[in-house]
Amino acid sequence: MPKAYKEFLLWLGESAGGFMDSYVLRSVYLRRNREDALEMMVEDGCTELLPDDAIVFAWYNQGQGFGFIRASEGDNPPVYFYDGTKGRIVQTHPTLEAFVIGYMDAFLDNIVKRKEWSRSLNNG
């Protein structure tokens, strides 16, 4: 398992507390995630293969796709996503770290926007 993923799981702990709650990140789910991903690809008629060393760690868009890293691609591997609507795999982030930081930035931006919206309701 890549070092960056192990560190992220350690940082995450037992629960994300609302952060990345649409993702199934904990290592106990990895085997089931892979099985579900393979099943999805077959159902979608996808001709691409999920690499043997893929670690499926994320589900998105109400089950229309998933994200994975490859164990063979170093300590901080690229992130790939399978888009079930298109039936293809694409690299979305150059590293797992870039994926997590990007998600954290978007999460925090959303919190700030909600607070600003709430303040505007209370002041308006």
Can you walk me through this structure?
- The protein has 124 residues and is an alpha+beta fold.
- It contains 3 helices and 4 strands.
- The protein has helices at 3-12, 30-43, 96-123, and strands at residues 54-60, 65-70, 79-83, 88-93.
- Strands 1-2-3-4 form a 4-stranded antiparallel beta sheet.
- It is globular and about 55 Å long.
- The protein starts with a helix and ends with a helix.
- The model has no long low-confidence stretch (mean pLDDT 80).
Distinctive features:
124 residues, 4 strands, four-stranded antiparallel β-sheet, 42% helix, alpha+beta
Write a compact overview of the structure shown.
The protein is α+β, with helices and mostly antiparallel strands and 124 residues long. The protein has 3 helices and 4 strands, in the order H-H-E-E-E-E-H. The chain has helices at residues 3-12, 30-43, 96-123; strands at 54-60, 65-70, 79-83, 88-93.
Question: Helices and strands, in N-to-C order?
Answer: HHEEEEH
Count of DSSP strands? 4
Please tell me how large the radius of gyration is. 16 Å
Number of helices: 3
Tell me the span between the first and last alpha carbons.
51 Å
Q: Which percent range describes the beta-strand content? A: 15-25%
Shape: globular
Q: Enumerate the strands of the largest sheet in spatial order, edge to edge or round the barrel.
A: 1-2-3-4
Structural category = alpha+beta
Overall pLDDT confidence: 80
Main sheet properties: 4 strands, antiparallel
- The helix content is 40-55%
Low-confidence stretches: none
